[in-house]
């Protein structure tokens, strides 16, 4: 490292020189080797780890699919027993949906988004690292159940009561519930990370309406993950509590309802279809303009379609429940909504076709996969409209027709664009070009094999073949079609194997790629190939949607340090923090470096998962505490801590560091996290009112078992704490920090008072949590309040300590504002719980 030079570096005049600047940036951002490689938090490395791990799980899921097609190739097969077949089919769907599709697309987004928006990394890099380790450990735990022959066998959607302890007494369902919940922590982490990074770290001048379309698609996907995943997390927690402890959330005799699981699952499940589709469509919208040689037609219409798709997707979940006996009015509403979602999808298809029509398309290898996508996805959309019609849905529900439709939408809508995108960005990954010959062979074998497999399955479904049956008798008219379908599946597998072989070989034998080999327009191609750990030597001002088309010399000037933040001698990992709408620079964001804490925290959470599986509850409790300590220790190295900002000074004329402001990215990250938390809480309220109004055996006592006086006293303590905290935050905004530490300690004490009173109310209620779902849901609600109250008290206590260490104060006022958001959320949800669980039953009655 050279001597620190805090003088402003004029644009176009790099004082240290490009070579020295590259060396300094590498010293700060470079990845360690050996065992310390486990500490890497860089988005490029973590994005690759997500994708490589996702591809490994894809191979596992593909192998399971081949076992299924082998079993169904001929009638009366005994290749697998019924139980093993059920395990294989359940794990095939689970692996492909949860361990491949979403993590793979998130990994691509983690890798590409900072490069596309002109940033050096994602805004919370250690959160990305935690997400990866949770994904890896959760996937390993879930996959290990196959080796033990204890895999779940109730279908990848785990419908109750089939997945309950009565019909699935082993550990199979527990592997699914705990493993998937673990994996979804990863997905939520990436969702929060991507939303905040896209909104707050775009390079200078990149207003929202000038953002690459791929970033729009990823922003919608990430927000949908944040809102859509918590309902399934809640459902998984409730079902695991029912299996492990006996709380009757889904048992009719205890006041529960198995249909509640379907609602919670599909509140996640149908948005997930579009969570998978939108990033793939983003790849299509990125590639078509490049190979058509012109800007996309109707940029605004595409953004409109993305937004509408995101909203409508949350109104479709009953689309999967037309046969469970819902009212006809609800069937009509959700049928209309299911057809309405075809409108924004059609807008995108017409925009793509118009761009190709008005341009001069070049049929390179990535475009071959795009054309395959257009054909397959349109066919899948047509069968989707058919399934939206309630009478037709009744006829083909739970047949191979639904399986075929699902694969046309998900494989055609996700896998084909994904391969197109990987071929397109391979030169960026490796600096080498793929093989046109192997790639084309891989495409045609995959395309023909896919259609041969699943087009035929539409016919077997119309002939009445149910899905999830492990065998069938000869003479039913399904024999030849199943044989052709199975043969085609092996052709498709050969095509995919050829594509993967091409990917592997090109890193060594591929032709070296010239810079920006496709003549693309977006900033990721301003990187070196392969890219450095810091992406860009200097960060440019961008005021166009096509920066590389409008300024082909931009990669050179960026590499020479002729733009902003071309100083590295301060020892910080830094990039711009910009306004979410205009792209105007607000602050310099300084990022934390490599750390063991995300790995340690994920390992502790893995111990929690394994302990719950083996019913070692004391060990699980200890592991929870250990994980909490790791996370709190991680949070200590933040803000004004010397390891987070070794040099807090900035060059004259530059904005301040984000930790010295009141609106840094951590505030936005907390807001998005609380949005996910709110989705979880609303799902809980939905479950409470659903069982209250629908469950035939719902039993509510004449008088509430909860002490209303105790809950009000707890709420008063919480309200007083929020009031004091708000006053302190207002003082910090005015540059005043007198009495800050004492105030934080007082607030923390009020938080612990709220927790103590709430705990007394819970213990004195004498709830029969294993007898009635009413009492079990009350227990879950109060446990939710206790968790949030306790965490708020601990965080505020740490703030008081950080004031004493000089990490928080008028000079660094950021963190109390973040903690205040948590307290506000806790205040609102606590009083809603009081009204819902204690006041409303007293007013309405049982």
UniProtKB/TrEMBL annotation:
Catalytic activity: 4 Fe(II)-[cytochrome c] + O2 + 8 H(+)(in) = 4 Fe(III)-[cytochrome c] + 2 H2O + 4 H(+)(out)
Family: Belongs to the heme-copper respiratory oxidase family.
Recorded metabolic or biological pathway in which this protein acts: Energy metabolism; oxidative phosphorylation
Residues annotated as transmembrane: 46-68, 88-111, 132-151, 175-201, 213-239, 273-292, 299-320, 332-356, 368-394, 406-426, 438-460, 480-505, 619-636, 667-686, 706-726, 738-764, 776-801, 822-844
E.C. number(s) listed in UniProt: 7.1.1.9
GO CC, alphabetical: plasma membrane
Source domain of life: Bacteria
Swiss-Prot/TrEMBL GO biological process terms: aerobic respiration; electron transport coupled proton transport; respiratory electron transport chain
Keywords: Cell membrane, Copper, Electron transport, Heme, Iron, Membrane, Metal-binding, Oxidoreductase, Respiratory chain, Translocase, Transmembrane, Transmembrane helix, Transport
Source species of the chain: Vreelandella titanicae
Location in or out of the cell: Cell membrane
Membrane topology reported for the UniProt record: Multi-pass membrane protein
Domain Heme-copper oxidase subunit III family profile residue range list: 585-842
Protein name, per record: cytochrome-c oxidase
InterPro entries: Cyt_c_oxase-like_su1_dom, Cyt_c_oxase-like_su1_sf, Cyt_C_Oxase_1, Cyt_c_Oxase_su1_BS, Cyt_c_oxidase-like_su3, Cyt_c_oxidase_su1_bac, Cyt_c_oxidase_su3-like_sf
One Gene Ontology MF term: cytochrome-c oxidase activity
Domain Cytochrome oxidase subunit I profile: 28-543
């Amino acid at each position: 490292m050279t001597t620190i030079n805090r003088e402003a570096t004029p644009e176009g005049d790099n004082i240290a020189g490009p070579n020295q600047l590259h060396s300094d940036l590498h010293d700060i951002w470079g990845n360690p080797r050996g065992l310390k490689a486990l500490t890497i938090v860089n988005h490029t490395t973590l994005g690759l780890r997500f994708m490589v791990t996702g591809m490994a799980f894809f191979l596992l899921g593909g192998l399971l699919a081949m076992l299924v097609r082998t079993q169904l190739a001929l009638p009366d097969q005994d290749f697998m027993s019924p139980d093993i077949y059920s395990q294989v089919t359940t794990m095939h769907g689970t692996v492909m949906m949860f361990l491949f599709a979403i993590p793979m697309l998130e990994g691509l987004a983690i890798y590409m988004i900072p490069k596309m928006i002109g940033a050096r990394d994602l805004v919370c890099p250690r959160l990305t690292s935690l997400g990866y380790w949770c994904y890896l450990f959760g996937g390993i735990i879930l996959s290990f159940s196959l080796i033990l022959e204890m895999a779940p066998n109730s279908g990848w959607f785990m419908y109750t009561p089939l997945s309950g302890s009565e019909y699935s007494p082993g550990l199979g369902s527990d592997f699914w519930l705990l493993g998937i919940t673990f994996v979804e922590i990863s997905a939520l982490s990436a969702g929060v990370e991507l939303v905040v990074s896209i909104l707050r770290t775009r390079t200078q001048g990149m207003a929202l309406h000038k953002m690459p379309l791929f970033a729009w698609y990823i922003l919608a996907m990430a927000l949908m993950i944040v809102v859509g995943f918590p309902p399934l997390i809640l459902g998984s927690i409730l079902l695991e509590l029912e299996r492990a402890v006996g709380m009757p959330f889904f048992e009719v005799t205890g006041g529960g309802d198995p249909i509640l699981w379907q609602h919670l699952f599909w509140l996640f499940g149908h948005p997930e279809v579009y969570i998978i589709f939108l990033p793939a469509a983003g790849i299509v919208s990125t590639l078509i303009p490049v190979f058509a040689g012109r800007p996309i037609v109707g940029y605004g219409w595409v953004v409109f379609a993305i937004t509408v798709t995101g909203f409508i997707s949350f109104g479709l979940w009953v689309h999967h429940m037309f046969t469970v006996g819902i009212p006809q009015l609800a069937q009509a509403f959700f049928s209309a909504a299911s057809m309405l979602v075809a409108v924004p999808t059609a807008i995108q298809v017409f925009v793509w076709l118009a761009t190709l029509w008005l341009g001069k398309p070049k049929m390179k290898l990535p475009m071959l996969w795009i054309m395959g996508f257009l054909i397959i996805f349109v066919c899948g959309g047509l069968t989707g409209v058919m399934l939206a019609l309630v009478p037709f849905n009744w006829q083909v529900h739970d047949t191979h027709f639904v399986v075929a439709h699902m694969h046309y939408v998900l494989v055609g809508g996700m896998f084909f664009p994904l391969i197109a995108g990987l071929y397109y960005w391979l030169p960026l990954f490796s600096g080498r070009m793929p093989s046109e010959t192997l790639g084309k062979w891989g495409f045609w074998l995959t395309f023909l094999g896919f259609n041969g497999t699943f087009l035929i399955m539409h016919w077997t479904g119309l002939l009445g073949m149910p899905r999830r049956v492990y065998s069938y008798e000869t003479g039913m008219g399904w024999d030849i079609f199943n044989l052709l379908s199975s043969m085609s599946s092996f052709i498709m597998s050969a095509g995919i194997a050829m594509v993967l072989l091409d990917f592997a070989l090109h890193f060594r034998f591929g032709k070296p790629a010239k810079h920006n080999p496709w003549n693309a327009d977006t900033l990721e191609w301003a990187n070196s190939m392969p890219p450095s750990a810091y992406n860009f030597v200097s960060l440019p001002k961008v005021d166009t949607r096509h920066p590389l088309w409008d300024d082909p010399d931009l990669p050179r000037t960026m590499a020479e340090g002729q733009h902003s933040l071309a100083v590295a001698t301060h020892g910080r990992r830094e990039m711009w923090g910009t306004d979410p709408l205009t792209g105007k620079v607000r602050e310099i964001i300084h990022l934390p470096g490599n750390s063991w804490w995300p790995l340690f925290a994920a390992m502790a959470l893995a111990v929690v998962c394994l302990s719950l599986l083996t019913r070692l509850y004391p060990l699980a409790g200890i592991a929870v505490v250990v994980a909490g300590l790791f996370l709190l220790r991680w949070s200590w190295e933040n803000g004004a801590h010397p390891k987070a900002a070794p040099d807090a000074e900035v060059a004259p004329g530059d904005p301040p560091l984000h930790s010295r402001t009141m609106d840094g990215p951590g505030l936005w990250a907390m807001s998005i996290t609380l949005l996910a938390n709110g989705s979880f809480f609303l799902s809980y309220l939905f479950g409470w009112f659903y069982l209250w109004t629908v469950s035939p055996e719902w039993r509510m006592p004449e008088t509430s078992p909860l002490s209303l006086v105790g809950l009000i006293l707890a709420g008063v303590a919480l309200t007083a704490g929020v009031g004091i905290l708000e006053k302190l935050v207002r003082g910090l905004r005015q540059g005043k920090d007198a009495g800050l530490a004492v105030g934080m300690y007082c607030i923390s004490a009020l938080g612990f008072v709220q927790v103590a009173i709430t705990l007394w109310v819970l213990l004195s209620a004498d709830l029969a949590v294993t007898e009635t779902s009413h009492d079990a849901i009350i227990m879950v609600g109060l446990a939710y309040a206790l968790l949030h109250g306790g965490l708020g008290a601990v965080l505020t206590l740490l703030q008081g300590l950080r004031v004493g260490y000089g990490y928080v104060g008028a000079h660094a006022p950021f963190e109390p504002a973040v903690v205040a958001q948590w307290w506000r959320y806790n205040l609102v949800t606590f009083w809603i719980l009081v009204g819902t669980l204690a006041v409303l039953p007293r007013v309405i009655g049982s």
